[in-house]
Amino acid sequence: MLKNNIIPFLQELAQNNNKEWFDKNKNRYKQAHSEFVDFTNNLIQLLLHTDATLTGVEAKECVYRIYKDVRFSKDKTPYKTHFGANIAVGGRKSKLAGFYIHIEPSGVSMAGGGVYMPEADILKALRTEFYNVPEELLEIIDSNDFKNKCGKLYEEGKLKTAPKGFPKDFEHIDLLKYKSYIAVKELSLHEIESDNFVEQLLDIHKAMYPLNRLINDIIADIV
To answer: Residue 103: enclosing H or E segment and its boundaries?
Structure first.
């Protein structure tokens, strides 16, 4: 499905990231965007087999805009060169852990999940839980399925020392240094073009879903 319009449009946009080209190809964008929304809606229905909490979630609340906010960016190109969606209760603005898909044929496509840069109270709650019961998180991230399908937890922004309020000599202090609790799997152009791409996404989601469930159970106790 992605091969017909979505991938070609995004590839050409990456080479022509300007308003003049985009305006001339607005109908192509609308077609590609509509197909990505349909793709996401279909994916949500399949994810329900693993995560029933997604019942009622619709793609329109999950798919991100293609228009960039360039006010505080050195890169002034006006459009994103990918389509992305955060599939979670509450959609793209959700504070909960979700399943993220990112289709960027001229860059790095990926899929994964978790919670990215949570607010301070949520981050503290997660760290406190992982301090009190580290076995919950360790069992998930040390499983072969998680390692094979999702790799490891995302380390960008990870603290170099123990976060404030937690002992430096805690046996599993590394678990508390993350600022985001997410895992992502990079996907090649060949993979996103393949006929079994949806099946691969479902495999990734199934492997990382225990992480989402754990995070959301913790968040549920503070909201």
So the answer is: strand 98-103
